[in-house]
Amino acid sequence: IDAVNLANNHVLDYGRPAVLQTLEALRLNGVAPLGLRHGPAAAQEPLLAEVGKVRFALLAYNAKGYGAPRDFFPRPFDYDRAQIRRDIQAARARADHVVVTVHWGDEYDLQFSPRQQEEGRLFIDAGAILVVGHHPHVPQGVEEYGGGLVAYSLGNLLFDMISNYKVERTRRSFLLTTTFDRQRLLSWKLLPIQADRYFRPKITPTVDVESFVLPPPRTTFRFSSALATLQARRLVGEATQPCATWKKRAPVRENQYMQ
């Protein structure tokens, strides 16, 4: 790992001492941080990196709240689409390609929102070649646009989430591999990840990839609201037994599920 994005809604959970300790740990291990704002300047200085003969400029932003006052530093660069466009345009003048990572999107929702799509494309139009999102804890769609690529969410990689009814989708994720020359994005590929019960990620070819490349249309249908009857069975040893009782409840928000 050569660089990490620290622009997220939990980086300040333990205050300034913990942020400074994190930055020092990264420095000692040769990992470059990005996405933290250390003063009042709104413009973000990109992290410049050369891979072979290709020069990249990396930018990172957080679209979620983090519970700190505006004069608290260091803190994540806030999500301001107009400022992000200006940052991309300035970075593009200094590098062959601009890569933007964004902490955005609804938790546990497998489909990106229309606003995410609009703004992901906006950043490509501004000069970025790759936009990578995170925060939903589940993978979302990936689309090619304008010679670039938008990966709306790759899901969790190392994250010990325990939830009775979200466990499968929060343990599935992707590694995104990309190949560039100085002019364009040559190719890209999703490597599917399945985390085991100890949350160790492993490349697992049987995990579905294709449906995330061309995601299904968004729908407001909820299985729990349409369910009339259900027969549930419990696994006991090698056999199953019918459950004597069961209950259903409505989802709390649009992106929640029946338990």
Describe it:
It is a single chain. The chain has helices at residues 15-28, 81-92, 114-126, 167-170, 210-213, 223-226; strands at 3-5, 32-34, 36-37, 47-51, 54-62, 75-76, 97-103, 130-134, 142-145, 148-151, 172-180, 185-195, 201-203, 233-236, 239-242. It is built from 6 helices and 15 strands. 20% of the residues lie in helices and 29% in strands. The chain is globular, with a radius of gyration of 21 Å. It has a 6-stranded mixed β-sheet with strand order 4-5-7-8-10-9, covered by helices on one side. It has a 3-stranded antiparallel β-sheet with strand order 11-12-13. Strands 1-2 form a two-stranded parallel sheet. The two termini are 37 Å apart. Helix 2 packs parallel to helix 3 (114-126). The protein is an alpha/beta fold.
- Relative strand content: 25-35%
Label the overall shape: globular
What is the C-alpha radius of gyration, as a whole number of Å?
A: 21 Å
Query: Which class do the helix and strand fractions yield?
Result: alpha/beta
Q: What is the average of the pLDDT values?
A: 86
Number of strands: 15
Low-confidence stretches: 214-221, 255-259
Strand order of the largest sheet: 4-5-7-8-10-9
| Portion of residues within helices | 10-25%
Q: How many helical stretches? A: 6
* Gap from first CA to last CA: 37 Å
* Elements, N to C (H/E): EHEEEEEHEHEEEHEEEHHEE
Q: Describe the main β-sheet briefly.
A: 6 strands, mixed
Give structural attributes:
alpha/beta, globular, 29% strand, single chain, 15 strands, 6-stranded mixed sheet, 259 residues
Record the SSE blueprint.
Layout: E1 3-5, H1 15-28, E2 32-34, E3 36-37, E4 47-51, E5 54-62, E6 75-76, H2 81-92, E7 97-103, H3 114-126, E8 130-134, E9 142-145, E10 148-151, H4 167-170, E11 172-180, E12 185-195, E13 201-203, H5 210-213, H6 223-226, E14 233-236, E15 239-242
Parallel strand pairs: 1-2, 5-7, 7-8, 8-10
Antiparallel strand pairs: 3-6, 4-5, 9-10, 11-12, 12-13, 14-15
Helix pairs in contact: 2-3
